[in-house]
Amino acid sequence: MAARRISGFISRSLSSSIASPGRTCNLRSEIQRFSTAAALQEPITPPVRINYSQLLIDGKFVDAASGKTFPAFDPRTGEVIANVAEGDAEDINRAVSAARKAFDEGPWPKMTAYERSCVLLRFADLVEKHNDELAALESWNNGKTYEQAAKSEVPMLARLFRYYAGWADKIHGLTVPADGPYHVQTLHEPIGVAGQIIPWNFPLLMFAWKVGPALACGNTIVLKSAEQTPLTALYAAKLLLEAGLPPGVLNVVSGFGPTAGAALASHMDVDKIAFTGSTETGKIVQELAAKSNLKAVTLELGGKSPFIVCEDADIDKAVELAHFALFFNQGQCCCAGSRTFVHERVHEEFLEKSKARALRRTVGDPFQKGIEQGPQIDSEQFEKILRYIKSGVESNATLECGGDRFGSKGFYVQPTVFSNVKDDMLIAKDEIFGPVQSILKFKEIDEVIKRANATRYGLAAGVFTQNLDTANRLSRALRAGTVWVNCFDVFDAAIPFGGYKMSGIGREKGIYSLHNYLQVKAVVTALKNPAWL
Ligand code: ADP
User: Fold this and answer.
1) Cα 1 to Cα 24: distance, rounded to the nearest angstrom
2) Which residue minimizes the CA distance to atom 16 of ligand 1?
3) Is there an atom of ligand 1 within 6 Å of 230 CB?
4) Which CATH superfamily is domain 55-301+499-521 in?
5) Is residue 502 a contact partner of residue 456, using CB atoms and an 8 Å limit?
6) Ligand 1 pocket residue status of 227, Cβ below 6 Å
7) Of 70, 84, 86, 197, which is best to mutate to test ligand 1, by the most ligand atoms within 8 angstroms of its C-beta?
8) How far does the centroid of ligand 1 lie from the alpha carbon of residue 268, in Å?
9) Which residue from 3, 75, 156, 499 could staple onto 375, CB 3.0 to 4.6 Å apart?
10) CATH 3.40.605.10 residue ranges for the chain
11) Long-range contacts made by residues 507-515, C-beta under 8 angstroms, separation at least 24?
């Protein structure tokens, strides 16, 4: 139904495509291609209504205590699409009280694990039923393509919940063979009230990575969504209620970082905080946690991931995957392959093909079929990306293509490729979080290992080679939480994800995420008659 409505909009919008100003690199005709391909005058109307914009506290949608609201925007135009209740410290207090009560007195940790698992499974079914609405909301508020949201991210939300539903009744401790006349067992218990702060680049997936395991383990939750993308967490939370989640088990507070986020991280009655976002904010969250009640902290932070193309790589495949590794989700991925290291013997061929691929990338309204790249999230990120592009040009990297905004409205950026990038340039050191590929040349494996590791980050890495020994050597030498060999951005529910160094603490997804939401209690019972031993 939604798909039909969208294709109707597509044909209308295609006929209204316009030319828009291009600039920078001297490849005028190429820029022309960018400009005319899909710059739409009239954005396609998303096939969804915004029904939930209040805070969810104790099972009810309510206004913020202050009565304040803040705008949620459409990144295609910069226009307001909804006014959302703006939670702050007082609302966090209300939400934490509800979560505390639901944990201490409420049914959730006391329900059987099987009953909990059934709630998660019913939720996954509801996500499938509402796939198109969730995807449309996600695309509308974030700018990611509707196709990506509908075919990959919303299905992954259901998949992750089914995965954690499977774990719920398989969590158990050990019987420990200790010295002496004791029976020793470990109980794996939920931690209590979990605070969760999520970012705007994958709102529904970050919801899944955090809420799924926390619920499976029997915790209750206060989740703060990102101020840029508050809408889908509220919708998903409503579906969890419909699936039978008791009131107070999941509370969602929309609002800003320094107010609502900081109040959550420093709350004395929150037992654990899980955060995904920038390294700078991660440091603040850890400090707030330490200064308040020393709550447990997991952090998933920034990255500047190397993508290494060896001389024996399948070049066409490597070009396509390096392109995907960087440009996917408008380049707004913490694990983006944002330093493309290419062996000098294949560098020229790789560069030509990468540039051609970037020039073929379709940019435009994310609701239009066939579009690969939508707008950046907001004006702040958009301006920041353009500043980084400027710094690349000023530091004498070669701008191969792109380099400017796309169209004249909203936050679109042309797919941009730099060559002749040196390790000490800002574009090779900082997380740009945009569609800007930096290609660097290397000669020796030892050299590329050193250079790839010479960063404060350690989130992910990509390795392209057909030689097993080279693959083994690189995957062991690279200091990163994930190494993808001849692939990139493979995010199965069971695969752990997290960072070395300043890319974070702890792992999410898979069995590893359960450790974040469980405490281990040792129960030591004296045996009455040691002779029984
Ligand atoms: P970005 O710069 O990409 O927006 P942030 O790390 O600032 O990334 O934001 C990620 C999440 O952290 C968002 O939900 C944001 O509101 C929250 N946040 C930002 N500042 C703080 C803070 N001081 N304390 C707690 N949370 C914060």
Assistant:
1) 42
2) 257
3) no
4) Aldehyde Dehydrogenase; Chain A, domain 1 (3.40.605.10)
5) yes
6) yes
7) 197
8) 20
9) 75
10) 55-301+499-521
11) 507/481, 508/209, 508/210, 508/213, 508/274, 508/298, 508/300, 509/160, 509/209, 511/167, 513/164, 513/209, 513/212, 513/213, 514/167, 514/171, 514/213, 514/216, 514/217
In this structure, which residue's CA is closest to atom 9 in ligand 1?
A: 277
**pLDDT at residue number 110:** 85
User: Using a 6 Å cutoff on CB, does residue 25 contact ligand 1?
Assistant: no
- Positions marked active-site: 300, 334
Q: What is the pLDDT of residue 531?
A: 59
Weakly modelled stretches of the chain, pLDDT under 50 = 1-40
Nearest CA to ligand 1 atom 11: 199
| Ramachandran category for residue 58: left, alpha or beta (phi over 0 → left; psi -120 to 50 → alpha) | left
CA of 286 to the centre of ligand 1 (A): 12
pLDDT on residue 533: 52
Q: Whose CA is nearest to atom 15 of ligand 1?
A: 257
How far is Cα 119 from Cα 48, in angstroms, rounded to an integer? 25
Alpha-carbon span 466 to 313, nearest angstrom: 6
DSSP reduced 3-state for 489: coil
Tokens, residue 27: 């490849």
Atom of ligand 1 minimally distant from the CA of 277: 6
Strands 182-190 and 518-526: antiparallel
The whole-number pLDDT of residue 41 equals 60
CA distance 267 to 72: 26
CATH of domain 303-485: 3.40.309.10
Q: Where in the chain is the domain with CATH 3.40.309.10?
A: 303-485
| Rounded Cα–Cα distance for residues 508 and 94 (Å) | 28
